[in-house]
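Q&A FORM
Asked by: J.P.
Topic: structure of MFS transporter

PROVIDED:
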Amino acid sequence: MSNSKRVLKTLSPLFLGMSLLFIGNGLVVSSLSALLKQREVGEIAIGLINSCFFIGAIISTLTSFIIISKVGHIRAFAIFSALFAVCSMFYELSDNLYFWAFLRAGLGYCYYALLVVIESWLNQRAKNTNRSRILAIYEGVFYVSFSVGILILALNLRPTQIFIISAAFIMISSIPLNLIRIKEPEIPAKKSVSLPKIFSIAPLALLGSVIAGVLINGFFSMATIFILSQNFSLSQASYFMTIAMIGGFVSQFFIGQLSDRYGRRLAIILATFISLLSAVLFLFFIGQIHVQFCLAFFLGSGVFCLYALSLARANDMLEHKSQSVEVGRTLLFSYSLGSLLSSTIMGFMISFFGTLGFIYVYIALLFILMVFAITQKSVPFSDRRSYNPHTIKTIAIDKLEAKKANE
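REPLIED BY: S.T.
REPLY: Here is the structure written out as tokens.
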């Protein structure tokens, strides 16, 4: 058996565990906005509650490594998965919105801590010869599993059933991890980030990562509100989100090849144009769900590539590749900042402009990004690095990859 196959076989319990984690997270994350909408909670309040997820996520990236370093990765996974499940089930205890916001922050904290554990293992096992294959499987597991979680909403379950099912997936996800025998990976030391410094080096990459954070996580948090506000069903909302994710998954391969050959700037312009055009067309097909399904595919195909392209653009712009750790952390911080603001921005826009407020955010930000990209210069082919697809899930993975590459 080749070394790559042996590594993949060793990691198969981890891939199984993470698939269960992503299913549970996809279900609970995508369902909360719909449940709040059904209880006639205002769009602004829904946006603010959803933003608490990313407050917890940012806190997690700054503190979760302390727990992991003290108890080890396997025990940390069990701890955070148990807390995640508790936060999911506790939604049934009260309808108080402040309580729901607190639980939402708890979900964000636990979810990102779990991803730190998972991605530490992946980076510990990944070598130059099999890194692309491992990351490709990771991407596939995320897209498929998260989509399955969203599709469970199409079953029209009661809130109690949604919370119990999501909690069950999260709790079961820790079982396969205990089957892995592997050396505990190290937690990298914290380093400061500098937005002004990165903007001076790669302004397009920084702007792209912020806008990607707003649009991607705004989609996960508020797309259900966009569909439900048109008087469509929760099942149709789940299909809408799943189709967009399929578009994002498929386009990763084409956009990656295009950016390697013709440059990140052109790829960012193309991805932005595709999403912008589809967003504009939404204005003419409000109330026509089947057309919106088609448009969702193209919206997702462009938007879900923006962070990966921004990261590749930043790495291409570096004179000293040793800066890749700082750049990766800074771009992920800017992405998290955009994610934190995403639900609130879209909640305000929907509240003031109605259903189309959701689309207005996409049109405005995609137009700004495309115009800015057009004004930037291309990077010479000799200075480009290989494109790697990145699903935005945590601040840990790029930091760990860059650290390992520099060792």
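FOLLOW-UP: The CA atoms of residues 189 and 391 lie 23 Å apart.
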